[in-house]
Design brief:
mainly alpha; 50s Ribosomal Protein L17, Chain: A; three-stranded antiparallel sheet; 3 strands
Length: about 230
């Protein structure tokens, strides 16, 4: 008989299970979330709730109980009590943890989950109902307006407005295209004039170079004739 050994066995002996649960609780408070097996997450949930309840009390006896539950980790207990004192779980009477399923683990098929601390502010049920009723009322008003707008006269006016906007857009587009074409033609003409000027300049330079060559050839011929006569 397993007297004084309450809870799940988790596949280990009692001492190993106790140490494993303590380690998981420590990691949860350190990192705000852990990834573990579903049975282990459900097993440590009461321990986490107890520690947070002690932190809400905040007296010396509760602090000593939390230190004993977390394996004499005084620094971690101090951080937990400070966070709770600053209003971390304020207004939340319970349900300090959340379990999200991830599916079976490869190999042995164990169900894996993510367990995390619920740090969101707790909204009372009455306030949630009031907010839901306001949202439903806001959603109802557009439907009425849509039904009123379904009249044939309003539909025709909307169609005419759409047609006018389409025609105006087409006219603007045509005007833009014409302006762009004119600008492009002007640019092409300017480029052609520049090309013609450059071609004329090149021709003039070539003509001057040919004249200089001819003059040099004539000068050389005259020199040759003078040398022959001198001989």
């Amino acid at each position: 008989m397993r007297h004084k050994y309450k809870g799940r066995k988790l596949g280990t002996d009692w001492s190993h299970t106790k140490a494993m649960k303590r380690s998981l609780v420590q990691q949860l408070f350190l990192n705000d979330r852990i990834k573990t097996i579903e049975s282990r997450a459900k097993e440590i949930r009461p321990d986490v709730d107890k520690i947070i309840t002690w932190a809400k009390k905040g007296d010396l006896h509760s602090r000593r109980l939390a230190i004993a539950a977390l394996g004499n980790d005084k620094e971690l207990v101090r951080e937990i009590f400070e966070k709770v004192n600053q209003g971390m779980f304020e207004g939340r009477p319970g349900g300090y943890t959340r379990i999200m399923k991830l599916g079976p683990r490869k190999g042995d098929g164990a169900p894996m989950v993510i367990m995390e601390l619920v740090t969101e502010t707790c909204v009372p049920k009455a306030e949630r109902k009031a907010a839901a009723s306001k949202t439903t009322a806001k959603k109802a008003t557009p439907k009425k307006a849509a039904k009123k707008a379904d009249k044939p006269e309003e539909k025709e006016s909307v169609i005419e407005e759409v047609k006018e906007s389409v025609e105006a857009a087409e006219e603007n587009f045509a005007a833009e295209v014409q302006e762009a074409g004119k600008e492009q033609l002007a640019e092409e003409k300017a480029e052609a004039a520049k090309d013609a000027e450059q071609a004329e300049e090149v021709r003039e330079e070539e003509f001057k170079a040919e004249e200089a060559k001819a003059e040099a050839a004539e000068a050389e011929a005259k020199k040759a004739e003078a040398e022959e006569k001198a001989k």
